[in-house]
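Quick one: structure tokens for this chain, please?
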Amino acid sequence: MASLRLFASARSAGKTVERFGKKYTVEEAKPGVFADVDVAFFAAGGSVTRALAPDAIASKCLVIDKSSAFRMEKDVPLVIPEINPEALLNHKGLIANPNCSTAVTLMGLWPLHKRFGLKRYICSTYQSVSGTGAEAIRELEAQTQAYVKGEPLPRKVYPYQIAFNCIPQVDTFGADGYTGEENKMMLESRKIMGLPALKVSATCVRVPVVRAHSISVSAEFEKPVSVEAARQAIREFEGAVLVDEPAEKKYPTPLDFAEKVKCGVGRIRVDTAFDNGLSFWVAGDNLWKGAALNAVQNAELMFRKGWLKPKAALAKV
């Protein structure tokens, strides 16, 4: 019978969490706890993954990791199940989840690549504060309330006021002037799509939205493009919903796609700077498709395909 266990730091051990009418007691995450666990979803940062994943793998527990710790390792699959599910077969005990903005972007870009053959793309992200964490959500709420009351705006999480503002920095800057988030977009797109020479230029921006990321994309393709063919490609793709009726002011917004399984794609048009180019807008839940949902989808797919065998079943063979 399937069961769920919750692990966290020693500080949280012993706390009770109630979900769906059932109470769970949090256990301390430490070596040895994965002995009878089939799948462990790691969502506590790269340092925790590096510290505990080897023990889980040694216990034959499959690790599905949300952090960036092992994403670019050659022998670690980086998987979006709608795009490269076959990569799940090549794991050595650990499967990496992509970065949130990469996952949402590729929900719009992949079906167009399959139709026209992608050469390069340029994007700007509009990333919600939930991507930073709960403290950032509270900061946006506190600043908004203070602004309305005419009070000084508290600032702790971000280097600038986030309420009624945009901050063109997500992650730290590298020597090349790009942030870690922007480089993740390039490197992860190449790996997931199987396009090692793909040219990508990204600008990642934090915006005063609570939940769900949006991305503006301009892409150049190998084959001639058309708006209707692009729309049809999105309609046929299982990971996206086409919302593209500009005359009716219908296009995806982050509010519309928060807590939604699929990402929304719209504003599809012929790009005026690229040959065989298309521009479009995609919005998706960074906490779902960009994080937890994608991880669960990978585990579910492996189970359905028979690629994931519970330890209890193996012991009876």
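The chain has two domains: 7-97+292-316, 101-286.
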